[in-house]
Amino acid sequence: MNCVSNVDDDITALRDSGGYDSEEAVLEDALRALLAKRPELRTELAVTKYRNGDVSLNRAAELAGMAPTEFKETLSERGIKRPVGFLSADDRDEAHRR
Predict the structure, then answer these.
(1) How many C-beta atoms surround the C-beta of residue 83 within 10 A?
(2) In terms of pTM, does the model score above 0.85?
């Protein structure tokens, strides 16, 4: 018996079993389960998304399960600088392209 699992095949099989509407739904559920099992990854995800300009500070704090002030401290401890003031339309567009 071959015990090697191919993740793509398993995702497709779960979708095909009728338990999920799409492969994306399987992945979303798996990600939620992973973050519940390893909560420290929530902080890593939030920091990365914030640093890349994908989410606001408040949304990143929410993802990390922290208050915004606590998340600011986490950023500071990691040497991540926060922009001060408002971004121009061009700067916002550039941040979204990254």
Answers:
(1) 10
(2) no
